[in-house]
Each structure stands twice: as C-alpha cells, then as structure tokens.
Amino acid sequence: MQSDVDSVRKIDFVVLGEITARLHQQSRQWMLPAEFSRLTWDHDSMVGAKGLWGHWRSVPACDPVHDSV
Fold first, then answer.
1. Which terminal Cβ of the chain has fewer Cβ within 10 Å, N or C?
2. Distance, CA of 47 to CA of 53 (rounded, Å)
C-alpha cells in the first residue's frame, strides 16, 4: 500500500503532535506495577523458531503462494 503524500494536511501533523504529547505525558506519570516484567525483543524472540508470538512462518500470509502478491 502506498501513501498519498498530497492528501496529508497541516492539521494531521498538529493532531499527531497532540497525541504524541499525551502519550509522552502518560508514560512519564505511569508507575510500573510491582509484578511488571518487560519482554525482551531481540532477533530470536521476534523471528526465531521459538518467537514470543510463535514462529513467523506459521502466519498464513507468509505462505509462498502469497509471496508473489
């Protein structure tokens, strides 16, 4: 899918900036729960045979039939 840069308006960047500011503020105020544990994202955990979300080759859209699309 290709984006249409001509359809981007100045207000789109204003809205994006406001959303980003709110997310930044929320991240500064959020207190980690005591039991919080962050996942480790590295090559093996993302695309390895024992990836955190399963093996990437198991995704139906990664089927060789779909690769030519």
1. N
2. 9
Query: What would the pLDDT profile of 7-47 be if each residue is shown by its tens digit?
Result: 889 999 999 999 999 999 999 999 999 999 989 999 999 88
Burial 36-62 (b: 16+ CB within 10 A, else e): eeeeeeeeeeeeeeeeeeeeeeeeeee
Question: Which is it for the CA torsion 44, 46, 49, 54, positive or negative?
Answer: positive
Determine the Cα–Cα distance for residues 25 and 9; give it in Å rounded to an integer. Answer: 25
Quote the CA–CA distance of 25 and 42 in Å, as a whole number.
27
pLDDT in tens, 55-66: 877 877 776 665
Question: In this predicted structure, what is the pLDDT of residue 1?
Answer: 55
Considering only CA atoms, which of 37, 57, 56, 58 is closest in space to residue 46?
A: 56
